[in-house]
Amino acid sequence: MKLNPIAILLLCCSLTFQSCWLTNTEDDIPPQIQDYYEPVIMERSIFHTTTTLQTTAEVIVNSGKIYVKDNYIFINERNKGFHIIDNTNPENPQNIAFLNVLGSSDLTIKGNAIYVNNATDLLALSLDIQNGTMEITKRVPNAFPQITSPFGNVYYGSNEDEVVVDWIFNENNN
User: Fold this and answer.
1) Count of CA atoms in the C-beta half-sphere (13 A) of 112
2) 64-82 residues labelled b (16+ CB within 10 A) or e (exposed)
């Protein structure tokens, strides 16, 4: 069976026009939303002073991992720190304090030592919740890679004396 060249031409033209009707080129390009995020950068000398125990509770906004130790629950506030919940009475847990640890996402406890990531650093903390005291017993700088954008594909080329502690959405880029 031999096809007429004019029929082939009409078929190709109709397919071409149909593909133009079904798409809008502006909608075909996915937004590069990762470009809207900007790093929150701190000088390392200031960054080292930001880990503190706040004896007033904060509202949980952007929770992450949860860790339970004895009568306490530690709930991560992504890249900000940890809510400390007194769970002595499980029917009425009390949000009692906040451990400010910039760039944090996880912690673990062994004995009386709390280990937490502080952006790129690893901290060992001694915490006395009843007396409202906290002490950094050891800091291991650059134990972790820098924090990437929320999409995990953008790094900020920071200097040696800078630390990326978070990424924020810049609404002005819309």
Assistant:
1) 8
2) eeebeeeebbbbbbebbbb
Q: How far apart are CA 171 and CA 36, in angstroms?
A: 7
Query: What's the confidence (pLDDT) of residue 29?
Result: 46
Residue 69: which H helix or E strand, with range?
strand 63-69
Mean pLDDT of 84-88: 97
List Cβ<8 Å contacts ≥24 apart for 14-17: none
- The phi and psi torsions of 20 (rounded to 5 degrees) equal -70, -35
Q: Report d(CA 40, CA 165) in Å as an integer.
A: 6
Residue 13 has which token pair? 């033209």
Q: CA 3 → CA 6, 8, 14, 15, 93, distances in Å?
A: 8, 7, 16, 17, 79
Q: Say if pTM beats, i.e. exceeds, 0.90.
A: no
What residues pair up with 1 in beta bridges, in sequence order?
none
Amino acid at 48: H
